[in-house]
Amino acid sequence: MVILSSLGGTIPLPWLWFLLAIIFAIVEALTLGIISIWFAIGALVAMISSIFVDSLLFQVLIFLIVSFILIVSTRKFAVGLLKIGKEKTNIDELIGKEAVVVKKIIPYVPGEIKLDGKFWRAVSESKQTYLEGAIVTVLRIEGVTVIVK
């Protein structure tokens, strides 16, 4: 078993990998970014490999390969499952509501609608013209622009 010198003392490689796994787990708990957890798992696999193989290069490769495979294969699923970055706001409640056109909407030129008592910049998804007073339906909101039909 290879011993790594650290700050004047020695630390066995399995413990070093375990310490790295703990650090990555703590970073994950503090950030909730669903990225550090894969490195924590990679460090645990490298820790297990360090018990059987003395090569630090091999252990680092195991750590990188396992971490990369986990990120590529499971991150999208985990983010979707935990709904990270998809904080629902009250703007989402406006989707599907009807609004009144207060400034004509023509293809490629934004108009204006009144929705729940507020004025919004609006464009037509179908590149259709809507005159003042027309009733439109909110399809989605992109930034400060409402997409209507």
Total number of helices:
3
Poorly predicted ranges: 1-8
* Rg over alpha carbons: 27 Å
- Taking all residues together, what is the mean pLDDT? 84
As a percent range, the share of strand residues is: 25-35%
Q: Work out the helicity level.
A: 40-55%
Order of helices and strands: EEHHHEEEEE
What is the CA–CA distance across the termini? 68 Å
Largest sheet descriptor:
5 strands, mixed, barrel
Shape: rod-shaped
Q: Please indicate the count of domains.
A: 2
What's the structural blueprint in terms of helices and strands?
Layout: E1 3-6, E2 9-12, H1 13-31, H2 36-52, H3 56-82, E3 98-103, E4 111-115, E5 118-124, E6 135-142, E7 145-148
Parallel strand pairs: 5-7
Antiparallel strand pairs: 1-2, 3-4, 3-6, 4-5, 6-7
Helix pairs in contact: 1-2, 2-3
Protein architecture, described:
With 149 residues, this protein is α+β, with helices and mostly antiparallel strands. The chain folds into 2 domains: 3-82, no CATH class; 90-148, OB fold (Dihydrolipoamide Acetyltransferase, E2P) (Beta Barrel), CATH 2.40.50.140. The protein is built from 3 helices and 7 strands, in the order E-E-H-H-H-E-E-E-E-E. The strands form 2 sheets. Strands 3-4-5-7-6 form a 5-stranded mixed barrel. Helix 1 runs antiparallel to helix 2 (36-52) and helix 2 runs antiparallel to helix 3. The longest helix is centred in the middle third of the chain and has 27 residues, at 56-82. Mean pLDDT is 84; it is low at 1-8.
